[in-house]
Amino acid sequence: MVAAIADALRLDADDRLHLHHLVALSQGTELVCAAGCAGEQEVPPGLVALLDRLEPTPAVLVGRRTELIAWTDAFDRLAQPLGILDGEQPELVRYAFTDSRARDAVADWAVLADALVTWLHLHSGPDTGATVEELSATLGAEFTSRWESRPTGTPDLGLRAVVHPEVGLVRMAPQVLLAGDGLTLVVLLPEDGVAQAALDRLVGMLPGGLRRVSL
């Protein structure tokens, strides 16, 4: 039915995505975490084991506020030199809007910013209001205008093209999987052969060890 409505309204791809998100929110799906969600710092052992299995792929468990909970060594090697993992509890939205390095580290900062604000909208929880209020007060119109206009970016953290000091530009295809308990797993697959070779070098693998799967 959603597809039929989108066809009737002649919506483009971005508007179709936004419509699906609105339907998901109205139906109370897992995209919205209720106040009773388990503490996000308590990572289920199964997810820890899954991260281990994903090596040497860059992958990260993310909370509602874009806080980075746990990640693979490959993600560490990719993100650490960019400043993404600085601090006791890294939060990607704070990094994007408050750390000047973000604009150099991410090839298209606007894509990053829109994706993260979209993430906050879709993963709203009991602490979202405080986070938004704080960011709005600190950053002013640059964040607030995005929040109020509700961008239709894909909620995939926006890390689609990063400039790494060791291997240069790396283009990635983020894959987003709901993990439950307010956590989301984001796996960063290489977008092309150049990205694959760069990630191979970064994690010390022989060429061809990490591939994007096309169906």
Structure explained in plain terms:
With 215 residues, the chain is of the alpha+beta class. The protein folds into two domains: 1-31, no CATH class; 43-202, Beta-Lactamase, CATH 3.30.450. The chain is built from ten helices and five strands; from the N terminus they run αααββααααααβββα. Mean pLDDT is 79; it is low at 21-40 and 206-215.
Short summary of the structure?
The chain has 215 residues and is of the alpha+beta class.
Q: Tags for this entry?
A:
single chain; 215 residues; alpha+beta; Beta-Lactamase; 2 domains; five-stranded antiparallel sheet; 10 helices; 45% helix; 15% strand; globular; disordered C terminus
Largest sheet: 5 strands, antiparallel
**Helix and strand composition category:** alpha+beta
Terminal CA distance:
26 Å
Overall form: globular
Number of domains: 2
Query: What is the helical fraction, as a range of percent?
Result: 40-55%
Mean pLDDT: 79
Beta-strand proportion: 15-25%
Topology pattern, helix = H, strand = E: HHHEEHHHHHHEEEH
> Which parts are unreliable, with pLDDT below 50 for 5 consecutive residues or more?
21-40, 206-215
Number of helices: 10
* Global Rg: 17 Å
